[in-house]
Amino acid sequence: MDYEITVTGLVQGVGFRPYVYRLAKSLGISGDVRNSGGIVRIRLSECDEELANRFVAELKGRKPKEACIDSIEMKPVEQRTGAAGFFIVPSDEIKADELPDIPADIGVCTRCISEMKDLSNRRYAYPYISCASCGPRYSIIHRLPYDRENTSMSSYLKCDDCDSDYNDENNPYARRHFAQTISCNECGPQAILRAEKGEELSGGFAISRACEILRYGGILAIKGIGGYQFACLPDDTYAVLKLRDIKGRKKKPFAMLFPNIASIKEVALVSREEEELLRSGERPIVLLEANLKDKSLKFVCGDSTNIGAMLPQSGIHEILSSVLGPMVLTSGNISGEPLSYKDEDFFRHEFEGIEGVLYYKRDILVPEDDSVTRILGGKTQVIRYARGYVPKKLSLERIFKKPLIAFGGDLKASFAIGKGRGVILSQYIGDLESYACQEYFKSSLKREMELYGFRPEAIACDKHPGYTSVRLAKEFADKRHIPIIGVYHHHAHVASVMAEHGLTHAIGVAMDGTGYGKDGRIWGGEIFYVTGGTADRRSHIEYFRLIGGDEAAKDAGKDLKCLMHASGFSIEDELIKTAIDEHINTIETSSAGRLFDIISAALGIRDYNTYEAECAIALENAAKSALKNSLTTYALPITGDPHELIYYLIKAKHKGIDVRELALGFHRSLASWIIRECEAVRDDKADNNVCLSGGCFANQVLSDMCRIGLATKGFHVYFNEKIPMNDQGIAVGQAYILALQ
């Protein structure tokens, strides 16, 4: 009897076919295996049923580390006469009802690092080393199936030694058997260093010169897996400040690349879960609690109590950090602009102050920033969804009736495509106020549709009439004559959590900076009851009036004056008084994000956001300091009325209460109000599920207070894990709402 086995999931680009080949050979089974579209198809020839069942059982139990099997379907088929033995045969293409799984880029594995450091190995010091278990995947793929000729590695012909590794499963490097990115110093991409005054070096000379540039205080541009990066040494204050000038990034913390876990532990506290996340194939930036013994990293981390740490994502990062130690590593672009990833575009920029560019000549087909993560309550929480995670598919409990695209929001823009039971969130794109980011958004969407052979029949977007993402969605829908459906911002936030956890009903808490509400006001501190595809707003932070415009999200000092005047305090600014009294260029908002800014300004902690959430982060740091130093929590009223809160806070500050105690008191008051309002909804709806989402829950103090407090009250608490809690995640929420409807 012959059997055909269809395997779906993440089974391409992770060494799955060689694994199937070795398993079949070990069991003495004849047949073949092939990539077919985005799945794997296996044929077992002249095999009895008992042996076929054993094959399937072992297929599930001993799969490659990076593989993820969604389903295995086996069926008897017409017997065919074939040659004895098992073979990996050429791929073919099929159409599927589900979105295929395409492998994400995988960080360099420990075995490749060992080879790279072995003087006797022919891949010694090869900076772009990879195997079937690691290396670039999504960033280099042109089309499915995932084979070398369908990637940007197609321009590199394998040398005889690499060809032998590729075809011979019995050689010492068996994990390179059918490894599509296989290459070495003789036949693969090579390191090239372009320095000032036209100097150009290659190979080991390029890497030595790059190390020299960094060692003597220079800024180096590095072409990584997903795009260009800027690097400098962290203990060189001049270099760090120069990098801030190049980036246009005055205060926001930089991430750091470390050679190993031991070097991270010298400056940060690292739990077992955090260490596992740092070592994972995704190689993300992990936010860790700083444990600084000196001020050497002050200009890197700024006022942050966290360090964004990562381990090497590729061989070139491993070499540089091994030689030089910890390095500042940040995206190679001006802040607010898209990541640079094409060689010709990067060199056209001519960034002033960059002393060298270390790159290679393999094309990056899709740009990807470094992903940002943290551990919350023992679970991984993705804050920026990019390299290593994109394009992993989120499997849903509900089926999309029509394939659709969700256009997300304007800040931290991403889109999502949905089909069958799956939804895929795009990489982090940036803020759509930038024209370059708008073009990047459109080109990324076009590429993803071509890659997946995707044809949408419906569009989801935000309800805000002034959003750029809404304009782009309408242009897209009009051109293709397909329906467009608007989804309210905060409903989408809650739905993004529900999508992850397979919920169809829950109490939803959405806390963020800005979102368009059903009443035309600016929402941002909302309690819902969500069932099916509808959201009933049950409570919210009381509206307060601010002077509108972009400055409302930046100038916390001005916002404070607005709220103080409305709360009965005397202020000297006549323009603000008149604007608030006469409703001139003002908005009404329930924004928790603006409230955090205002409290920060009221306590004299920070009164202007030079980068997003700077004031709120400083306020959180003050609360953390109170907890760390066992200070008393100042008791504030449990209220959602900002006017009442600001009244008691200012009075307490005038009494000389430590601002750290007041900062902690504000967090406690807001968390207690959220818990109280959730209890009221539960009493009415008899529902114990609570979903927490929105950018304010990036605040760890607030998140922990709500998560633990709600659990203590008997709630089942859910929060974003795989999908960001900030605006990058709302595209998934928009898509899920349409699936529920």
In words, what does this structure look like?
Helices cover 34% and strands 22% of the residues. It has 741 residues and is of the alpha+beta class. Among the domains are: 2-88, Alpha-Beta Plaits, CATH 3.30.70.100; 199-359, DHBP synthase; 375-497 and 727-740, Nucleotidyltransferase, domain 5 (2-Layer Sandwich), CATH 3.30.420. The strands form five sheets. Strands 6, 7, 8, 9, 10, 11, 12, 13, 14, 15, 16 and 17 form a twelve-stranded mixed beta sheet that branches. α21 (700-712) links the parallel β29 (689-693) and β30. α5 (203-215) crosses α10 (315-324), α15 packs across α16 and α17 packs across α18. The longest helix is centred in the C-terminal third of the chain and has 27 residues, at 659-685. The chain is globular. The mean pLDDT is 93.
Question: What topology emerges from the helices and strands here?
Answer:
Blueprint: E1 2-10, H1 16-26, E2 30-36, E3 39-45, H2 49-61, E4 68-77, E5 86-88, H3 110-116, H4 160-167, E6 192-195, E7 200-202, H5 203-215, E8 219-223, E9 228-232, H6 237-247, E10 255-257, H7 261-265, E11 268-269, H8 272-279, E12 285-290, H9 298-301, E13 306-310, H10 315-324, E14 327-331, H11 343-349, E15 354-359, E16 372-376, E17 379-384, E18 393-395, E19 404-406, E20 416-419, E21 422-425, H12 435-452, E22 458-462, H13 468-480, E23 484-487, H14 489-501, E24 505-516, E25 522-531, E26 534-540, E27 544-547, H15 556-566, H16 574-582, E28 586-589, H17 592-602, H18 614-628, H19 642-654, H20 659-685, E29 689-693, H21 700-712, E30 716-719, H22 730-740
Helix pairs in contact: 5-10, 14-22, 15-16, 15-17, 17-18, 18-20, 20-21
